[in-house]
């Protein structure tokens, strides 16, 4: 590349873009790790975006109607950190950049949304950002439809790399965006033909432009180092009535000895090459030093949105008070006042009606009363609406001609759904929930983990939660999936046993602020358990005594969740009839039980009894409740699955694998 | 549809295809569950494929050079079962079809490869079949290059539905196939515009033909009910020098009242509608009865390949004996004689050299000696070759101009890689291994689970297996992923502590016949532990005494895996210096330790000592070894992770999270 020509053609632009490149080189050198090439290659695109298109106010990174900027190619985190520092974000003083990738810094190896206000989402696992962005753009459409264009009217801009586009989730994302004409979603593809292993062509010959067109996107191809072309493309994209993909032909590690090579993808720390690159840029200041005129120019850019934001605030104040309150309440993830009363009334009614229902059907009943109280919920399913029972009458279906619709037909895209739900939650103003079969936790995993890491309260509705789904067989029968979600930090797994516990689980899931929830729901009908109405949410304690020893001394504690609670209750009856005192503990949420104080936990699970756990899944995760963390509880056993299931009617499977009152009672007696 | 016109235009074809439809209706009605519409819609395509193109011999379903038929839309399992019954596969008598979806039947809800010889792969989780198929087709190319066209020369045919094509993994699969010109891969897309939730257009507007073209496929569009068009398309596809996608416009549940509706996707069990459909077909026999002439015609089709197979056997016999032996040995998954000696020699050398290495680097050393001994290995990485250390000098790179190459640059496609590796293993003749960062277990999960369910010995090389990867931060630091793989039935997770254990782990992984392995390897260097050479593979016992109490009575057992073994050894030294007797147990594979007899396990983990486990992951899965399944072991503790990691240099992270000899020793003393 002839850098001199680039610099002289657009000197103002060049110095601003070089600021990004220089900071990247310096920070990566200081950390002795990181990815230099991507920020250096996309500096021109990012500069034009921030200078001329992105609606933002660096002093108010949380302004609700800002444009969203998502760095899907998260390894290029220095691009974002440099932009935030240059535009004057007070959370990114130069010290943060000097501490790139060090303990406690906001400038983590990959952008982490919970470390700084201006970081919209956590990226790094490739493809997630672009898939989140679909949720951001959907959220904008939905909120615009509900609140009006004068308070919600912004774009979602994404920088995605070759890696993002190779990941399968990107296909789910772009076909969703294409289906829904998400015209305010603009993806800038860093088309540098380099991956870690070598040129992209080593592993891919895809015509990306044709691929996006096949997904009903508008596409534009430009030289990613020409600011005029970048500006024109962004202007054109903003006018399109389809989502737009701008293919930006770039040189990775522009101007460095490693330009256009896979070495350029990584950490460029060679001191001499670093100096040579800065010389080639015409950059004369020392490490982490930005010439005052360049810094000032960037700070002006950081203030570009001030007037817009102020005008927006004035417009927002003209909204009716109730709308404003709902908007702010949803954004703050606060529960509406009516929620608690609605749940209580529903529980009272269900305690009396005591319906025999599959918990997926219980869940639908709950949603029928909660969705009208929570206008911020957006539901959906990955093509299993009738099976996941996620759609309620009032929601309406989100579509190109009904942006107010609060139900999404996600199609057969569990991963895309989960990532987009995270995006909705990150956007703010929406509480997303979506369903699939629990076994397909596997497909959604990358996004489910990120929900937990990012601290967003996405709700994953996982029905058909065991061999109880029957004939579909082991490919569809989760065995290890409760353990998988329970192993994941900051994730609450709810496995309710009846309609009342299901309502309590939903109440908790829909009031979480910083954690995702997994609802584990049955396909098969379950007898009702909670006959006495209590206003308290017992599920909030994680576990509680559902039935205690009667008549004789307690010698056995049976601990069960979900569809096995009624088996434990039946085993209790058998044992009580033999004069053995039995307590049944319902344990709908291990994580919440773990959070209770010692006294409560000891009250529910006192010593001196043998314990048998029962759950139609693997034992992994149960020992803490059976044995205690230090093995102090004594004798225990477990009825669960230690193999994959089989294809047969559910009742036969439960018999075959020992989920019967007889077997459970026998296990308890064997311990006595 | 005018069924009479269809029937009269091609009466012989019609009666054969109707046999599939009638059996489907009968089996689903008998089971009162299942999916009728897909087999009914694709019966014409399948009939022409089996009658005129598929190279197979129903009496010899395992003939190595057969064409492979993969039903990616696995919910349409009755299509496959009907074809196998009709063509005379002896594992599918009519009783099997009458027992569709019942306990112990081969006719499970979704096709399960381990239940019958003719079922090539397990499908149901959508998109997996088409992604497996890429591996099948690659395996064919590689084996053809190595053994010659006269013994390896077959096609891979796939039936895929809308669901398969919506799943992201399908994009990874088709772009891989397009990259490598896998011209013998032919996908028949069941283009019926119906999903469970409604018409495909509810959730997708993708131009699939354009999408496949963008991925460098040949495409053909046909009427999926016209046998002439089907035949012509398959003929054209077989001549193409690219992979071919045939878009077959079909009517789901053809001829049934539910035709062209999402109801038609499911179980069509209404007795009157069933009778009406059979009448419309002109089908006059009772349930599960096939007219003799139709059955005979199908059985002739089942014998079409006999001459081909016999000719192939003769050709195979002309191969040099050593080639035949290697071919058969690899197909049988038997280890070569030299393997064991090679591992022993390597271990001896390493015990002496005692290199300080990251186990990912140890792994590369091992592969350098094993790949030359095992011509059946095919390695690869999802764009992290230099980080996963999976490429060795002898392999050569698989490419369009080097089909002999045994190394695959999979690109940024963890899920596609894992599914395709499964396909290679299922094809037979190849032992695939492939690498990514352990955290991206999440992306590969659906295929990793299926490897275990399908009983194939795919090896997943998961490097950067803890916070020890350092600065890349929590998005890249696995915390729960050891637990995830350990929770999965029939999966062996190896976490070696040094080069010797790494060699032992590889020896075990590469001799597995029915189970996948996960190798958990470090980014960071580890001190060598196994200084005394033993010919026995100690890792095969799952856990063993690495160092015992010396001088004083044993009061503490420290149990560790992988990168924490040296921490346990250092803690032991500290405690021994204080006069406390300490045993260190290295536990590279929990699953193998669980398989040892009680006597061995008691010898390694006797009672009477306090136990502390240490592993840079969540505790889930450890309690069995710390506390015993019934809590009989007494006092125990654990040093692990109960939160996500952070971005910082590795040593600082290990300090911060307590993975130090000091902390471990303190935990042990607190228990004493």
TrEMBL record, chains A, B:
Binds 1 Mg(2+) ion per subunit. Can also utilize other divalent metal cations, such as Ca(2+), Mn(2+) and Co(2+). One of its GO terms (molecular function) is metal ion binding. Its cofactor is Co(2+); Mg(2+); Ca(2+); thiamine diphosphate. The active site is at residue 414. GO terms for cellular component: cytosol. Substrate binds at residues 35, 265, 360, 387, 464, 472, 476, 523. It catalyses: D-sedoheptulose 7-phosphate + D-glyceraldehyde 3-phosphate = aldehydo-D-ribose 5-phosphate + D-xylulose 5-phosphate. Signal peptide: none annotated. InterPro entries: THDP-binding, Transketo_C/PFOR_II, Transketolase-like_C_2, Transketolase-like_Pyr-bd, Transketolase_bac-like, Transketolase_BS, Transketolase_fam, Transketolase_N. Keywords: Calcium, Magnesium, Metal-binding, Thiamine pyrophosphate, Transferase. Thiamine diphosphate binds at residues 75, 124-126, 163, 192, 265, 440. Pathway: Carbohydrate degradation; pentose phosphate pathway; Carbohydrate biosynthesis; Calvin cycle. CDD domains: TPP_PYR_DXS_TK_like, TPP_TK. It holds the Pfam family Transketolase_C_1. The record marks 35, 265 as: Important for catalytic activity. One of its GO terms (biological process) is pentose-phosphate shunt, non-oxidative branch. Its EC number is 2.2.1.1. Residues 357-528 form the Transketolase-like pyrimidine-binding domain. Mg(2+) binds at residues 162, 192, 194. Belongs to the transketolase family. PANTHER family: TRANSKETOLASE, TRANSKETOLASE 1-RELATED. Homodimer. This is Transketolase.
